Amino acid sequence: MDRTGLLIILSSPSGAGKSTLARRLMDWDPSLRFSVSATTRPPRPGEVDGQHYYFTTAGAFHQMVEQGQMLEHAEVFGNLYGSPSAPVEAAMRDGRDTLFDVDWQGGQQIRASALGGHVVSIFVLPPSLPELERRLRARGQDSEAVIASRMAKSRAEISHWAEYDYVLINDDLDRTEQNLRAILTAERLRRDRQGGLGRFVKNLMEEHA
Amino acid sequence: MDRTGLLIILSSPSGAGKSTLARRLMDWDPSLRFSVSATTRPPRPGEVDGQHYYFTTAGAFHQMVEQGQMLEHAEVFGNLYGSPSAPVEAAMRDGRDTLFDVDWQGGQQIRASALGGHVVSIFVLPPSLPELERRLRARGQDSEAVIASRMAKSRAEISHWAEYDYVLINDDLDRTEQNLRAILTAERLRRDRQGGLGRFVKNLMEEHA
């Protein structure tokens, strides 16, 4: 059936398992498309244009924003980041869902965009803040100052949980993955999300029984 | 968490697999409560009061309707059938979902009732009408006239598919069961269906991190 793809927004404080969950969802459903961000930040070694980011200039970025070609965008440490709408619209036409790994501000902007009616938003909560801090430390990547700043950002992120359609408490990664699969499966079965149902029923009724 | 139970309405033409699916859902989740109907029809051999039906008199039935104690009711071949609200309200308070096996008219009445905001409604379509007729014949219970009347009723039932939240095409019983499980799992994870989330987040934020 010719369904229209959904925009799946996954938000959570950093360290709550979001990236792992996003990767697992992509493994589970290869038709799912991950929204690659555009950025004005220069590529780091190993980063591939169009795969990790669309690397672009500030001029081109601003032009896309002005022409309404960014679903959301933000400035972080002097660099611009945004979600280009064209690949999302192409995926929607193909009946493919797009997964967005964005924070609450990105979520708000996408919900308020012209494609907002196709959004399914999911917030992943950590089981506890000490557990979140423990996970951040376990990465061994960050200084104490960075960890403190991440924890402050996490609290700000968590404060927006009530803006999301679904809320998951990630106390077990496997179970949370199952729950995410259930949400995607169910959302695709909603009457108003299924294309071609009316035609299916019309054909059903016109068959000679 | 102290969630409020949902009212899960499952409708389909007879022969589309609804009873089997309802039984499988109850096996999967023993906390699910099946809504037992009240009826003025006399018990058949082997039928247990309170298990197959609540057997009652027309007087008592009408009194329940007048006192708003029936979520839905209908007259079929001179007998009254209805869904008493009291056991549903008790289950809701216990955080247990109730499963209703009702037709489109029952579904409409429950949706329009005071508990309508807690309804999740699912319509199960047969893959085809000849397949539906084949299944009815395979039961070997019914005369040609009864089968013709059931098929007419099926068409009337199917015509109401667009009033439901979810629509499943039952071309594979196992897959349809998985889809039903996904819908129940996802609906329970909706932010506005989870009780106590606000308190959970409040506690989370007040922990010493």
In short:
Two copies of one chain form a homodimer. Chain A has helices spanning 18-28, 58-66, 85-93, 104-112, 129-139, 144-158, 173-189, 197-206, and strands at 7-11, 33-34, 38-39, 54-55, 70-76, 79-84, 98-101, 119-125, 166-169.
What are the SSEs and their pairings?
The structure is a homodimer of 209-residue chains.
Chain A (H helix, E strand, L loop, with lengths): L6 E5 L6 H11 L4 E2 L3 E2 L14 E2 L2 H9 L3 E7 L2 E6 H9 L4 E4 L2 H9 L6 E7 L3 H11 L4 H15 L7 E4 L3 H17 L7 H10 L3
Parallel strand pairs in A: 1-7, 1-8, 2-7, 3-4, 8-9
Antiparallel strand pairs in A: 3-6, 5-6
Helix pairs in contact in A: 1-7
Please tag this protein with its features.
homodimer; 209 residues; alpha/beta; Rossmann fold; 4-stranded mixed beta sheet; 8 helices; 9 strands; 44% helix; globular; Guanylate kinase (chains A, B)
- Assign the CATH topology of chain A: Rossmann fold
Give the helix proportion of chain A (percent range).
40-55%
- Give the beta-strand count of chain A: 9
What form of chain A results from the Cα inertia axes?
A: globular
Main beta-sheet strand count, sense and barrel state of chain A: 5 strands, parallel
Q: Could you name the ranges of chain A where pLDDT drops below 50 across 5 or more consecutive residues?
A: none
**Helix tally of chain A?**
8
CATH architectural grouping of chain A = 3-Layer(aba) Sandwich
Number of domains of chain A: 1
CATH superfamily of chain A: P-loop containing nucleotide triphosphate hydrolases
Task: State mean pLDDT of chain A (0 to 100 scale).
Answer: 94
Strand content of chain A: 15-25%
- What is the CATH class name of chain A? Alpha Beta
- Strand order, largest beta sheet of chain A: 2-7-1-8-9
Radius of gyration of chain A over alpha carbons? Answer: 19 Å
Straight-line distance between termini of chain A: 23 Å
Category from helices, strands and their pairing of chain A: alpha/beta
Sketch the topology of chain A as an H/E string, one letter per element.
EHEEEHEEHEHEHHEHH
Identify the biggest protein-protein contact and residues per side: A-B, 41 and 41 residues
Family (chains A, B): Belongs to the guanylate kinase family.
Organism (chains A, B): Paracoccus haematequi
Protein name (chains A, B): Guanylate kinase
GO molecular function (chains A, B): ATP binding; GMP kinase activity
